[in-house]
Amino acid sequence: MQNSELPRVLVIGAGLAGSEAAMYLAQHGVPVTLIEGKTLKLNPAQKINTYAELVCTNSLKSLDPNSAHGLLKSEMLAMGSFIIESAKKHAVPAGDALAVDREGFSGEVTEKLHAHPLITVVEREAADPMKLKEEFNCAYVIVATGPLTSKSLEEWITKEISGDDFYFYDAIAPVVDADSLDLSKMYFKDRHKNIEEGGDYLNAPMTKEEYYAFVEELAKAEKVPPKEFEDWKFFESCLPIDLMAERGKDTARFSCMKPIGLEPDINGKWPFAVVQLRKENLLGSAYNLVGFQTRLTYKEQVRVFRMIPGLEEASFIHLGSCHRNSFLNARKLLDWDLKSKKIPELYFAGQITGVEGYTESASMGLYVAFQLLRRIKGEEAMRFPVETAMGALVNYIMTIEKPCPSNINFGLLPSIELTKEQRRGDRKKLKKQLVATRAQNVFQSFLSELR
Ligand SMILES: Cc1cc2nc3c(=O)[nH]c(=O)nc-3n(C[C@H](O)[C@H](O)[C@H](O)COP(=O)(O)OP(=O)(O)OC[C@H]3O[C@@H](n4cnc5c(N)ncnc54)[C@H](O)[C@@H]3O)c2cc1C
Predict the structure, then answer these.
(1) Which mutation among 56, 133, 151 tests ligand 1's pocket best, with the greatest number of atoms within 8 A of CB?
(2) Does pLDDT of 234 surpass 80?
(3) pLDDT band with cut points at 50, 70 and 90 for residue 98
(4) Cystine design at 272: which of 201, 208, 213, 371 (Cβ 3.0–4.6 Å)?
(5) Which DSSP helix (H) or strand (E) runs through 187?
(6) CB hemisphere CA count around 311 (13 angstroms)
């Protein structure tokens, strides 16, 4: 097929994901219409009217290929990432991290998108992607409108695509590294099952004194105040743990910390309250604190959650938070190439698919553009190996039962069992190195298969 015959793609949103997707497609000869609404009206988190704005910190996190974030960036660079290349051009000193001059970076992205002969930029707020597809004579649409997708488009997505499987607030519970838990104080058991049967849940039992001391600290700990555009409305069935503590000292004990069915505990006693931890991945290298979505500041989370028996030395893979965020239940609504199950010409990319963070969102723009380009060329969609950072992110959003946006972290990649010999040294560091090296090798062979 001659490039001039390639069908046009409509990309909605010139954020991290949309800019990445638009440039990838254009660089591969696909004409793109890119719609962005911010030049007409900034959303409450935006400050500048150029594209790919970093709305908070100017850091895209580590470049070290032995870290999960570094790994993700190295894969993106191998695929020709426009966003990471532009960020590198505007990097400011930040040790191992890729921090940028945000205006320089955003300005460069905007200029390059406008200058590309195959990209037409339209400044407009999109409300109905399928009508716009017809208007601009496009064959496919990528919606990449991010965590603060505008109201009219949110309404369209809810009505036409998602129903209740589109979420507007994100309440995240902390995740801990399994290796950092003191299992001598905890026990595996599912509610109302015998302790001898083991179970999927890891339980941390509390005495009356431990529980009340914990709840008291939760209630008085420092919280992150809501942003001006956030109007906290929590589902009663999904309240932050600190809000439960504020409501009453026994509220949590009758909710996510209830001990019923979890007795007797590891000491043969009836616990007064229990914190339940659920495996975050199949291998059990990370655990989620069930029902512990929280508004506490990061520092306070570490202090207070280390009061839980067995978590005294806990290392947190990520901490909890509550914030405004539009994201889909990808597992229910999308195929593995992130196209809509309902409208196969429609794709979603970026944070709206259920990932979290600048780099992760950009990587999902690259992933979708890669898959769509294959489709345009008449090739099958291709699953990225789960051992790679990009593959692990897609695997996460496509398999997690209760969607909960995540950054890239080693807990998403399959773990590696260490030999007896290897377990003698710094196990955590070695495990990460081995997982990172495997990811690099697997990604390289994946790419060479494509060539
Ligand atoms: C307050 C806040 C703080 C954050 N802090 C951090 C942080 O410190 N570190 C971090 O890694 N991540 C942070 N994030 C998350 C980060 O912003 C996102 O991960 C990332 O920007 C998502 O990229 P995206 O391309 O999916 O969406 P975005 O970058 O948000 O891009 C979406 C684009 O779509 C446009 N748009 C929306 N609706 C429409 C419409 N209907 N028509 C046309 N255009 C539309 C928007 O104007 C925007 O330009 C924060 C997010 C928020 C809201």
Answers:
(1) 56
(2) no
(3) very high
(4) 208
(5) strand 187-188
(6) 28
Burial class (CB in 10 A: 0-12, 13-18, 19+), 115: exposed
Predicted confidence band of residue 235 (pLDDT cuts 50, 70, 90): low
Mean per-residue pLDDT, 178-201: 90
Q: Specify the DSSP class assigned to residue 296.
A: B
Buried b (16+ CB within 10 A) or exposed e, 230-269: eeeeeeeeebbbbbbbeeeeebbbeebbbbeebeebbeee
Could you tell me which residues are beta bridge partners of residue 274? 205
**Residue pointed to by tokens 């431990």:** 210
Which residues have C-beta within 8 Å of that of residue 247, sequence separation ≥ 6?
239
pLDDT above 90 as % of the chain? 78
Reduced 3-state DSSP string for 349-387: CHHHHCECCHHHHHHHHHHHHHHHHHHHCCCCCCCCCCC
**How much distance in Å is there from the Cα of 156 to the middle of ligand 1?**
19
HSE on the CB side for 415, CA within 13 Å?
A: 20
Convert the pLDDT of each residue in 409-437 to its tens digit. 998 999 888 888 888 878 888 988 999 99
Residue-wise pLDDT tens digits, 13-31: 999 999 999 999 999 999 9
Strands 91-92 and 97-100: antiparallel
Ligand 1 centroid to residue 11 C-alpha, Å = 15
* Beta partners for residue 279, in sequence order: 287
Q: Tokens 């999960």 label which residue?
A: 68
Q: Any residues with Cβ below 6 Å from ligand 1, and which? A: 12-18, 35-38, 43, 45, 55-57, 125-126, 144-150, 153, 227, 350-352, 356-358, 361
Instruction: Convert the pLDDT of each residue in 365-401 to its tens digit.
Output: 999 999 999 999 999 999 999 999 999 999 999 999 8
Instruction: Kindly list the structural domains of the chain, giving each domain's residue range(s) and its CATH number in brackets, ordered by start.
Output: 3-169+324-450 (3.50.50.60), 174-319 (2.40.30)
For residue 61, the surrounding DSSP H or E stretch is strand 59-62
Which residue type occupies 191?
Answer: R
Q: Is the peptide bond before 264 cis (omega within 30 degrees of 0)?
A: yes
CA gap 159, 187 in Å, rounded: 44
Give the CA distances from residue 383 to residues 120, 171, 289, in Å, rounded to whole numbers and listed in that order.
Answer: 30, 29, 30
State the pTM of this model: 0.81
Does residue 1 surpass a pLDDT of 70?
A: no
